[in-house]
Amino acid sequence: MYHYDSFDQQLATERVAQFRDQVQRRLSGELTEDEFRILRLQNGLYMQIHAYMIRIAVPYGMLSAAQMRMFAHIARQYDRGYGHFTTRQNIQFNWLKLPDVPDILADLATVEMHANQTSGNCIRNITSDEFAGVAQDEVIDPRPFAEILRQWSTFHPEFAYLPRKFKFSITGATADRAAIQVNDVGLQACKNAAGEIGFRVLVGGGLGRTPVIGTEICDFVPWQHLISYAESIVRVYNQHGRRDNLYKARIKILVKALGIEEFKRQVEADWQFTKHGECTLTEAELKRVSAYFTTPPYENLSEEAALATLLQSNRAFANWHKRNVKAHKMPGYAVVLLSLKKAGIAPGDATAEQMDAAADLAERFSFGELRVTHEQNLVLADVKQSELFTLWERAKAQGLATPNIGLLTDMICCPGGDFCTLANARSIALAKAIAERFDNLDYLHDIGDIELNMSGCINACGHHHIGNIGILGVDKDGTEWYQVSLGGAQGNAASLGKIIGRSFSFAQMPEVVSRILQVYVSKRDLNERFIETVRRIGLEPFKDGVYGTPVAADEKLLNADYDLIKAGTPYDTPYYSPRF
Amino acid sequence: MQIIKHKTVVEDDWQVLHLSEADTPESVVIPAGKVLVPLQVWQAQRDILLARSDLGVWLNSEQRAETLQADIEKFSLIAVNFPKFADGRGYTLAYHLRVRLGYRGELRAIGDVLCDQLFYMQRVGFDAFAVRADKDIHQALHSLSDFSLSYQASADVAQPLFRRVQR
């Protein structure tokens, strides 16, 4: 993976000093909260219901064992012993005090990490394929380009005050695992007929209040022009994106308003000034960055023969292998997903102990590297098949081997009303209620591939629009309700879900999910996945199944066990908490 | 008042002309002395104003640098107004003035100019800053040196880092 040179390190260090000074001026009252807000957001720092939250960048989801241990340290030293991995492959800590934040950033800088631009109206952390470099369907390893984009977008002087946030995602594989169709800019690395490398560029995708699938703006931008082309897109957006209405400020609204042809014309008109200019990437720079993403020293192995016997003799191992182990491009190796979706735990949460354990596992089994997925799990990308059983036993002991990747309980879920000031409804609590209702592993495996995505509000951090089952928290007269949509999907055949009807109370929701699954089970063809059934039969049978008879509330869900965050201990010093 | 110019706090006697509701660009009377006039006033009274040597022009964030293309050589001072510090259009405007139009005179940030934006402003081509009166101008001066290097090309350095140094 990438390692900082002296230039990267110097910038990281200077950023910490800059923010330390800004925090001091906030604490002294010199900076108003309104002035400070934008500065702290550009350092990933939010004010949430209980405390400050920091979102630390995990560039394109890649982590070293040392970096993961730093997260464990932050969890112990400054937080309450855990962190939350996010749908942009980042990590958040929820219980921080403002005066500690400069120290956290300083600690992070010692392991080549930062929280730059993980929030605010700027270019956010670049996301990518969690299987980059090891996937069988990869055309080009996207990570060198993701790192080049990271450097270009870091502290870009022109684009720190955009109309709204701006998200890039990049993939180099034929199957899209990076949700490139629902990012502001989606990049698909590819080769043209002459074998040259370039990018198919999508623009104006996104979820949130107005979900849109991205539109192709160019079918092939040669790699040398990646930066100048990206810069022209963002420059046109910076000039013309709406600034009068927060809800219409994303690039997707501009692209819709202008039409893709006119938007493209403006981008190309700007690009003519820079296309062959100094921003053109050089062979030397690509070579320099690519050198960090070399193939690890794989052993010359063949497919592990003993595995078949183990899988036959141990059903629990076989269940895990079926769901949590993926094909690797090298014979004798496998890609392993460590599930952060154990029932009863907030999806994506990991304790400091689990972080340390994951770091240990990475060092022991996978060349010391990990990845974070946008589905909020961890990846060990280079595991010998012969060591899968040992790895499984160790991961299981740490609660990291729930055999549910891609199953119903592998939910994508935002922090929701337990933490977030924007949320209309709790999502972690509902995830818990659903996980408890569907705790029968045989049933989950029988249901098979299904994506349940949940957001506590319209901002869609939980990607509910592209969940096969999407759940959205809505506010009705100050109480929480949940709207259900079906038919959303991510990947190459990305689609946006459609709402099935009126919303439900918290205590009705597990039964609603159950009814949806019952319709699927009764209507599915042999080997037909949930999304395929929805696409074939449409929404009507599901509406009939869900709304046919009144949905009773589950009384046990009305008790306080589902308020994950107890009243807590609010901080009582000014500026330490949003309560002031 | 004091402004920052070429990384120094200096006294400055330019006045910024704002159109009141009663004014029109055609009819507003331009006071004597050093005056920064709004772009639309320059456009409306160009023929008369061409004679004055003590005149600068200011653009608002939604206006386009290209509008000044024909006249760019006539000015020794152009200002860009930030209606709100979070309105980032002024950065692209400045970049265009410097890089696309080749403007070499003083480029001043006016309006909601606080302390912590100056580093980026300097990078896109501003060399003068009329820091908002209630802010500490010396603190603002300090923020001009927040970083000692940068990854990208902009108006301040024509090359991105990978072309500038051996990495």
User: Sheet with the most strands of chain B?
Assistant: 8 strands, mixed
* 3D shape of chain B: globular
Any low-confidence stretches of chain B, pLDDT <50, length ≥5? none
By secondary-structure content and strand pairing, the structural class of chain B works out as: alpha/beta
Question: What is the arithmetic mean of pLDDT of chain A?
Answer: 94
Residue fraction in strands of chain A: 15-25%
Describe the protein's architecture and organization:
- The complex is a heterodimer of chains A (580) and B (167).
- Chain A has 18 helices and 20 strands.
- Chain A has helices at residues 6-27, 33-41, 65-77, 101-109, 143-153, 226-240, 251-258, 260-274, 283-290, 306-313, 315-324, 352-365, 388-397, 428-437, 441-447, 509-523, 530-537, 540-547, and strands spanning 45-47, 52-56, 62-64, 82-85, 91-96, 127-128, 168-171, 185-191, 197-203, 215-222, 325-327, 333-338, 349-351, 369-372, 378-384, 412-413, 452-455, 469-476, 479-486, 498-499.
- In chain A, the strands form 4 sheets. In chain A, strands 1-2-5-4-13 form a 5-stranded antiparallel β-sheet. A 5-stranded antiparallel β-sheet of chain A has the order 3-14-15-12-11. Chain A has a 5-stranded mixed β-sheet with strand order 6-7-8-9-10.
- In chain A, α1 packs antiparallel against α4.
- Chain B has 167 residues and is of the alpha/beta class.
- Helix content of chain B is 23%, strand content 20%.
- Chain B has helices spanning 39-44, 46-49, 89-100, 118-123, 137-143, 161-164, and strands spanning 2-5, 8-11, 15-16, 35-38, 55-59, 77-82, 106-111, 128-129.
- Chain B has an 8-stranded mixed β-sheet with strand order 2-1-8-7-6-5-4-3.
- In chain B, α3 (89-100) links the parallel β6 (77-82) and β7.
- The longest helix of chain B has 12 residues, at 89-100.
- Chain B starts with a strand and ends with a helix.
- The model of chain B has no long low-confidence stretch (mean pLDDT 96).
- Chains A and B meet through α1, α2, α6 and α9 of A and α3, α4 and α6 of B.
